[in-house]
Amino acid sequence: MQSLEPVSPSELEISHLRRAASSTACWVLLMFAASRLMLLALIVFSRQIIEHGPFVAISRQNEHGGTLLDILTQWDGVWYRLIAQHGYAPPTPELAPAFFPVYPMLVHAAAFIVRDFQVASVLVSNSCLIASALLLVRLLRLDYDELICRRAITFLMFNPVSFFLSAAYSESAFLLLSIGALLAARQEK
User: Fold this and answer.
1) Which of 179, 178, 147 has the alpha carbon at shortest distance from 23?
2) What pLDDT does residue 33 have?
3) What is the 3-state secondary structure of the chain?
4) Cα radius of gyration (the chain)
5) Binning pLDDT at 50, 70 and 90, where does residue 57 land?
6) CA-to-CA separations, 19 to 14, 23, 64, 147, 180, in angstroms, rounded
7) Measuring CA to CA, how many Å separate 17 from each of 76, 104, 117, 150?
8) Which of these, 75, 104, 102, 74, lies nearest to 87 by C-alpha position?
9) CB under 8 Å to 108, separation ≥6 — which residues?
10) 78 neighbors 104 (Cβ within 8 angstroms)
11) Distance between CA 178 and CA 131 in Å, rounded?
12) 146, burial (CB in 10 Å: exposed 0-12, middle 13-18, buried 19+)
């Protein structure tokens, strides 16, 4: 028979916080995985429509490849990759200073590990998205309950423009830094 020993309120609070954090982290990862799978399905479906439907002439004019990485790293992603590889010096085009340096620096650091700038840029964007969601939960918990936190994460992951948070753009890094700044301000740090 187990003896019932008194537990201090701080121990109960820490145990409750650990369970809540674990539950929320699982929710964040579940919503991330579900939304990215849906995004992948939409990409595959839309590529089929463009390549075989009435837009076939447009798809043939597209200068980019058709792999998932090519799709996630086109347009401004090309600029960020060039800056991550070469910095702001030539052969980076003259318009490169229009792109802020934090995201390319993160991509450069990740590419040092994974040895591929395309893969690194998508990894950085998705890592920043997950970290943003976790920080958003911490920020929301200051005022709201778990249900509101979960809804906010669901809306973040499934919003119509969330594609850009997984692509090779700086939006997910900006979101992470913005939420981090708001959280620090709320906690007066």
Assistant:
1) 147
2) 95
3) CCCCCCCCHHHHHHHHHHHHHHHHHHHHHHHHHHHHHHHHHHHHHHHHHHHHCCCHHHHHHCCCCCCHHHHHCCCHHHHHHHHHHHCCCCCCCCCHHHCCCHHHHHHHHHHHHHCCHHHHHHHHHHHHHHHHHHHHHHHHCCCCCHHHHHHHHHHHHHCCCCHHHHCCCCHHHHHHHHHHHHHHHHCCC
4) 21
5) very low
6) 9, 6, 45, 15, 23
7) 40, 35, 38, 16
8) 104
9) 84, 85, 120
10) no
11) 12
12) middle
* Helices 171-186/117-140 angle, 10° precision: 30
Tell me what the mean pLDDT of segment 103-108 comes to: 93
Q: What is the pLDDT of residues 125-182, one digit of tens each?
A: 999 999 999 999 999 999 999 899 999 999 999 999 999 999 999 999 999 999 999 9
CA proximity to 35, closest of 160, 158, 133, 166: 158
Q: What is the pLDDT of residues 76-90, one digit of tens each?
A: 888 888 888 888 777
Q: What is the residue extent of each domain of the chain?
A: 66-189
For 35, the token pair is 């939304």
Query: Cα separations (Å) of 37 from 89, 159, 166?
Result: 38, 14, 12
